[in-house]
Design goal:
The structure holds 2 protein chains of 2 kinds.
Chain A lengths: L5 H20 L6 H10 L1 H15 L7 H18 L4 H26 L3 H19 L4 E2 L3 H7 L2 E3 L5 E3 H19 L1 H11 L1 H7 L3 H27 L1 E2 L7 H11 L11 H21 L5 H33 L1
Antiparallel strand pairs in A: 1-4, 2-3
Helix pairs in contact in A: 1-13, 2-8, 2-13, 3-8, 3-9, 3-11, 3-12, 3-13, 4-5, 4-6, 4-11, 5-6, 5-11, 8-9, 9-10, 9-11, 12-13, 13-14
Chain B lengths: L1 H24 L7 E3 L2 E3 L1 H8 L1 H15 L7 H17 L4 H26 L3 H20 L4 E2 L3 H8 L1 E2 L2 E2 H19 L2 H10 L1 H6 L4 H27 L1 E2 L8 H11 L11 H20 L6 H17 L3 H23 L1
Antiparallel strand pairs in B: 1-2, 3-6, 4-5
Helix pairs in contact in B: 1-13, 2-13, 3-8, 3-11, 3-12, 3-13, 4-5, 4-6, 4-11, 5-6, 5-11, 7-11, 12-13, 13-14
The chains are: A mainly alpha, B mainly alpha.
Chain lengths: 324, 338
């Protein structure tokens, strides 16, 4: 068995067992309605987690995404309110903006050789501050195009709704998987995460790849912001505080190594769904408080970090044994 | 003494410039008056309100000196505040409540320290666990409500006055001075720096890195507990959701403004505390000068970037490179002109 894929198998196993437990307790859990809602409610988190997976596999971290999502929502709402632009044009401007923002952070990280988390921390302050400057109050979006976006869904058998944003999330995951596992860029990202020196020896252009990685994360954060604004129908500068941590947690629970170099985009999808499942279970149960979500997420994080640590040690001792 | 001043000069100059700048917009910034035996004025306000960040910055300086980071301090503050408020409202009295809160903080530090030093998880990742789960634990203690209390002795910790100065100010000054003495009058500071520069080498040189690392994270927990007590006492209630929210970032920012390298090694607690004062002066100054407080985050972001650029190990080479390019360009243009 491929040792690298073990965390992925564990992730899938935990998800299936958790779903089984939920299903035994509440048979309705398996209805397409619940599945549809699971996808819709976690669409913005899933999309941003795809970007985070790429960043983490490259050995970095992006703390700015939560603020960028909030900024995107406010930006869209204010643009639609104050200008006569069509939402699609606003989306295009926004995505260009967030991609450039991410790319700029990547450039700083590469050029200054500073830890990614402190550079993206500055980005987090910047994006949140920019959102505040645009508007402190929640701005409603009442464009007819938005209403058609919100109403767009495909009725699954069993009356479950597969919404447009849920589909968009699944599509994003597909794009992420193809990009990471089938393209030269994906291979470069894995190489950088595995070790900068080896990547350089392999001929990976480190600076360029780093900029692209963070630009991609910025693009995903912007897309997630669009989805979030469709989901909530408004833009609010205080929204999605701490989403970056939820996304990191989803990536780690999905089996990606936080030190970089190993992980699967598909695992992140399962990670996002597992976290969504915990929330759904708490809603179904009705007596549990929502803070259990945080505690269970923390426990899952611990479990996966320890598992990965153990795996890394095991492979190291194997290497030593082979050499010795 | 001369060395210390030289080390602190950039931070002191920054603080002085900032105060001058705020004074331009709000001339009364430096005015302090005696009212009912207590000092009143914007400066005293800065000294009082910087208490949580300054306390955290003391601990964070030590953690960062070991090449670590602690993201869980905000959540630890929430836990300790909740424990203290719970104990006080259950009628245990202030000393027991304080001991319980500090015990909770030390326990949080022990947990982080063990993960970092014994299990060997990266500090950033290890403390992320408590950061995620910590607020849930705090809410478990407060049962999701804001636990309020009326104990006057506890409230004194947050809003009382001693010899004219607010109580929180005394607390952070005491912690900062005692920690500095402990670090600089013994070899402890040196050993911590050794771990931060090269943990393997320090271990080979006979430094007990494991015990020392755990102790450093426990010291961080202790500082977070004190900060949590001050915040809880100030609002006379434990708010599991908002107590210490974002403060881990402010504390890291204070340490970075203090000129301490995030890559570990040499540290200065005094500089970090001045960093905390700078942050607080900015946020109070912005409010007094009549700007909307939304500028606060933008200014912090710009500050971080500027400091990063200055601190960057590549800044020197980069600067050299661009100057060389410019010279080449000039030479080439000169040739063409000829």
């Amino acid at each position: 068995m491929n040792m690298r894929a073990l965390p992925l198998y564990v992730t899938i196993g935990i998800f299936l067992v958790a779903y089984l437990i939920c299903w035994i307790q509440f048979p309705n859990m398996l209805s397409t309605r619940v599945v549809g809602n699971l996808l819709t409610d976690n669409a913005y988190l899933g999309i941003v987690a795809v970007g985070m997976t790429v960043v983490i596999i490259s050995g970095g971290i992006d703390l700015s995404v939560g603020s960028v999502i909030a900024f995107s929502g406010v930006f869209i709402a204010v643009m639609l309110r104050d200008t006569g632009l069509h939402p699609l044009a606003v989306f295009a401007i926004l995505l260009a903006l967030t991609t450039a923002f991410g790319g700029a952070m990547g450039w700083l990280i590469d050029r200054l050789a500073m830890p990614a988390f402190i550079v993206t921390l500055a980005g987090m302050f910047l994006a949140r501050g920019a959102a505040y400057l645009l508007s402190i109050e929640s701005v409603p979006i009442s464009h007819p195009f938005y209403q058609s976006l919100q109403g767009a869904y495909w009725l699954m058998p069993g009356k479950g709704r597969l919404t447009l944003i849920g589909l968009l999330m699944l599509f994003t995951f597909c794009v992420g998987m193809i990009m990471m596992h089938k393209t030269r860029f994906g291979a470069s990202v894995y190489a950088i995460g595995g070790g900068e020196a080896t990547a350089a020896l392999m001929g990976v252009r480190q600076g360029r790849t780093t900029v692209k990685v963070y630009a991609f994360s910025g693009l995903m954060a912007g897309l997630s912001g669009i989805v979030f604004s469709v989901y909530t129908g408004s833009g609010y500068s205080l929204a999605t505080v701490g989403t970056e941590l939820t996304a990191i947690a989803a990536v780690v629970i999905g089996g990606t190594l936080l030190t970089g170099g190993a992980g699967y985009v598909f695992g992140t999808l399962i990670g996002v769904l597992t976290m969504g499942l915990i929330q759904t279970y708490i809603v179904f149960d009705g007596t549990l408080s929502s803070w259990w979500t945080k505690i269970v997420t923390g426990l899952l994080l611990l479990l996966f970090i320890l598992l990965q640590k153990g795996l890394v040690r095991l492979s190291e001792s194997r290497l030593v044994a082979r050499e010795g | 003494m001369h060395g210390t001043l030289k080390r602190l000069a950039p931070q002191l100059i920054a603080l002085a410039t900032l105060i001058a700048l705020v004074s331009v917009f709000y001339p009364g910034f430096l005015s302090v008056s005696l009212n009912d035996g207590r000092l009143v004025g914007p400066v005293v306000d800065v000294l009082k309100r910087s208490a949580p960040v300054a306390l955290l910055a003391v601990g964070m300086t030590l953690v960062i000196a070991t090449r670590g980071i602690d993201l869980s301090v905000g959540a630890t503050m929430a836990i300790c505040g909740a424990v203290a408020a719970y104990a006080v409202s259950a009628g245990y009295g202030l000393p027991v409540a304080m001991l319980l809160a500090i015990g909770a903080g030390l326990l949080a530090g022990l947990w982080n320290g063990c993960l970092v030093a014994i299990v060997g998880v990266q500090p950033f990742v290890a403390t992320l666990i408590l950061m995620t789960a910590g607020r849930g634990i705090a809410q478990l203690i407060t049962e999701g409500r804001i636990l309020t209390f009326t104990d006057p002795a506890f409230a004194f910790l947050g809003s009382g006055n001693l010899l004219g100065l607010p109580m929180p100010t005394w607390i952070w000054i005491c912690v900062a001075v005692l920690t500095t003495l402990l670090m600089r009058r013994t070899a402890l500071g040196l050993l911590i720096e050794a771990i931060g520069i090269n943990r393997r080498a320090s271990a080979l040189a006979g430094v007990n890195a494991v015990v020392l690392l755990i102790a450093v994270y426990m010291a961080m927990g202790f500082c977070a507990a004190l900060a949590g007590l001050v915040v809880t006492a100030d609002i006379r209630g434990a708010d599991a959701n908002n107590a210490g929210l974002w403060l881990e970032l402010d504390a890291i920012l204070a340490v970075v403004i203090g000129g301490n390298s995030l890559l570990g090694g040499r540290f200065s607690i005094a500089a970090s505390v001045i960093g905390a004062l700078i942050i607080q002066t900015i946020s109070i100054g912005i409010r007094l000068a009549g700007f909307p407080s939304e500028y606060n985050l933008l200014i912090k972001a710009v500050l971080v970037v500027v400091i990063l650029v200055l601190q960057s190990p590549r800044f020197g080479t980069e600067w050299h490179y661009w100057r060389q390019q410019l010279q080449f360009k000039r030479l080439r243009e000169g040739k063409i002109a000829k």
